[in-house]
TrEMBL record:
Dimer. Keywords: Copper, Disulfide bond, Metal-binding, Oxidoreductase, Repeat, Secreted, Signal. This is L-ascorbate oxidase. The lineage of its organism: Eukaryota, Viridiplantae, Streptophyta, Embryophyta, Tracheophyta. It catalyses: 4 L-ascorbate + O2 = 4 monodehydro-L-ascorbate radical + 2 H2O. Its cofactor is Cu cation. Its EC number is 1.10.3.3. Coiled coil: none annotated. One of its GO terms (molecular function) is copper ion binding.
Amino acid sequence: MIGGLGRSSAAPLCAERRLLCSLFLAAALFGAASAATRRHDWDISYQFTSPDCVRKLAVTINGHTPGPTIRAVQGDTIVVNVKNSLLTENVAIHWHGIRQIGTPWADGTEGVTQCPILPGDTFTYTFVVDRPGTYMYHAHYGMQRSAGLNGMIVVEVAAGAGGAGEREPFRYDREHTVLLNDWWHRSTYEQAAGLASVPMVWVGEPQSLLINGRGRFVNCSSAAATAASCNVSHPDCAPAVFAVVPGKTYRFRIASVTSLSALNFEIEGHEMTVVEADGHYVKPFVVKNLNIYSGETYSVLITADQDPNRNYWLASNVVSRKPATPTGTAILTYYGGRSSPRARPPTPPPAGPAWNDTAYRVRQSLATVAHPAHAVAPPASSERTILLLNTQNKIDGRIKWALNNVSFTLPHTPYLVAMKRGLLGAFDQRPPPETYDGLAAYDVYAVQKNPNATTSDAPYRLRFGSVVDVVLQNANMLAANNSETHPWHLHGHDFWVLGYGAGRFDPAVHPATYNLKDPIMKNTVAVHPFGWTALRFRADNPGVWAFHCHIEAHFFMGMGIVFEEGVERVGDLPPEIMGCGKTRGDH
């Protein structure tokens, strides 16, 4: 029984009131008795901001970037009314890590689950937050995420016997949220035009690293910076300050919404105990610094047990790419200490580990396993394995990224709409490749002999309820001796991270090395240079879901795919998600 209604009673209600029913059933699963509805009204507009002291147009929420932190309790319904005031630009917002059970049309992925929100239009996202943890939201239209439309989502454990805090496998007194980002002075239009050009103009390394939307461009005295109105005394770029009480334990909820950079995060002088990753509890382990990739979230615990009479750095450093961006910094200060809260610490900011120490980063990935009391055992086997070779290619002279020699493109009509309405001509019906040619002899350390590829928007169709393995294989790029880290994000699901390896994945050998005892569940995972990462998930969330590299430029250049599962089980679609492609005029 759900709220006094049996399934037979709830079914007619579903047919009549699609959205209310989806939310009603989802909330019932996650403790509807105490669930609340939390409403937000957002106006999306361009505003001049100076997050790193350089004046630049940014996409803002109610005039601010980052946007407000959404705070909720497990089982709550979130309602966000989004007005697009960008005037000449569409928008869509993805709720990263929220599985959208029963509301796939609210995932916020333009071209996959909805048409974009047109200039001047208002669109309402309504969904249930089904699991406690640390999450984020960001734009999912073009390369808009790097323009400033982002923020954090914090979902608390639903109150039960003894209170919410006792339901988690760790204790803390207070918490802070930390949003990490990278920042460019060139507009996303300029970046996108460069990526699509022949020859390609790469976006380059970011000018600054931001912590909670604040940083410092170090070359403010240069002619270019002066022309761009660089003002080091601007309040927008004053460093973020995190205050702690001596002797207390703090939970730092950390999210990376970077567009390019893999980061290493450190709180000077304070060891961090990792306790959560992407909303799942981790077997605690202690680190001096934390590697975090775009799209990932972590919670760490620190104890305020250092000298309270001085300040300490929070530091963010680029790893896995040769850094050309200075350390991003913020300040940790102690209540009651003699140091001014904004005073610079007396030491240089931590420089982090060597940027090219891949083994160091792999060790942290391997150390991230499920908490013993909260481990969810994966299915013992899968019925389908999709092996994706990730390569850099050329199509009509343009540099692209491809999976199994296919570079992904988004259709003009969103998949979810096209499939529900039987619009077969809206996307390629041919099944995409599930492995790559020459697997047994492929040399992932060499530049591929034939760099040519093709494009497609064909989705991977999964049997509803089936267990699927995906192996992401990294390889050399077009330039010799070069392979990058790629953080892959799956919408609509969490997956078990079964293993990592160096070199070429061998289907006859490496599955025997999978961790089936206590693999962590995540929604975003790194594929390390010249290596592979294996994951497993159950295709049990009706809808169409993107799976892509979370580096903004890489997805723009084709590094992604789409999964369809059980779309026939999805209820009637809201007309508000239509109006583009073959549904033009249906908005």
